[in-house]
Fold this sequence. Notes:
By secondary structure, the chain is an alpha+beta fold.
Amino acid sequence: MAKQEDDFKKVISHAKEYGYVFQSSEIYDGLSAVYDYGQNGAELKKNIREYWWRAMVQLNDNIVGIDAAIFMHPTTWKASGHVDAFNDPLIDNKDSKKRYRADVLVEDHIAKIETKAEKEIAKAQKRFGETFNRDQFVTTNERVSGYFGEIETISKRLARSLEKEDLADVKKLIEELEIACPMSGSKNWTDVKQFNLMFGTKLGASAENATDLFLRPETAQGIFVNFLNVQKTGRLKIPFGIAQIGKAFRNEIVARQFIFRMREFEQMEMQFFIQPGTQKEWYEKWKETRMRWHLSLGMGETNYRFHDHDKLAHYADAAADIEFRFPFGFKELEGIHSRTDFDLGNHEKYSGKKLQYFDHETNKNYVPYVVETSIGLDRMFLAVFSNALQEEELENGTFRTVLKLPSVLAPTKAAVLPLVKKDGLPEIAKEIIDDLKWDFNVLYDEKDAVGRRYRRQDANGTPFCITVDHQTLEDRSVTLRYRDSMEQERVAISELNGIIHKAVDMKEWLKKI
């Protein structure tokens, strides 16, 4: 756990040092769980957005995109269930006066048990080498199977208690597991209480006539209330999807883990409208499709896993998370939910407007069912960034810090470096910049020795460094250095665009899906 915490601190520190993420309003001591994206962070975030949008909208002829408003009619949130059911179970420690999400305290306890199990598995793997069979070891080793059995028992009890809203049993579970306050070590807990997460605001010129509104806690409802508008204007036939990227807001009392859980965040969601009765097939298909999208970025298959929900949301008949191995353990990155006809059916009831689809093949009207894919853009950013940050020992015994971002997502694709600041080398370097900048985000760097500049670009995640030297004056060739391998090759200036394009082109990466 100490190594995980240390690794995570390095991620946070590196993100600030290299212009990726800053504490919001830092000069005023910041605002808890609110962050700003710096010059490199904004580029990385934009590239992740585009990678998702192209895969979801551009490459699917039956999925379209919209951009709905953050403010919505207040009845929207009554119909969606958020007014009555959008709560977190909170518990206070009487000694430290700190407040926690009760379910997260239990989940963190489970994570500690899981870490113990993984340590035993790693030891066995090292002992047995290539002959090691993980599945067989997990089921036959008494200690490890005991750990996983304990995890399953705790998880099922927590899910059952939350589903029944038996908050007394949630507290009892915390006490039985002897879970202590992470700050003080005290086990002196209050009762568990529900807390609604929506931010309230007002719309109107005067307090007397103002309408009470909420900042949207999710982007999905903007899709549902526009279902008929999009279907009719786009002449779309079921099955079809509506996608959206946008901000959402949740009054997270226990916001933590950097940008993993924030009060203002961005979602990338797609609602896929289908014929009732086909939801199981589409649910499995979208689970598979979304996992392929993640794996296309090459961040390691073992860093992902599916987690099927024991406790289902009020709108779902099936739900699973794609979990990613963050520095603090496996956590939810994306959710795939079979939402049935809950949303459209409720909006139809509350609005008094028909939200149905006429199927010409069956000659019937029906309220479509929905399968949802929902991924947090900020969590995806953290997954990409934390996975990419590595410290490598080199052959000469020195170390380098390198940010091995997927090149398709890297904020800067290439840095152009004149070997010295004279003899016409800066002028050629700037010529190269002027040519490449039409297609790629590139930068010019002439400060310090070239080796230090390489290290700086490694830490910044730049896939290519292009060095202009005196040979360039003779034959118009440059040294092209690759970030990940540190290999160098001599190439003609005229070849640079093609080489970089092949490595960072979204088309080539998305073909892996």
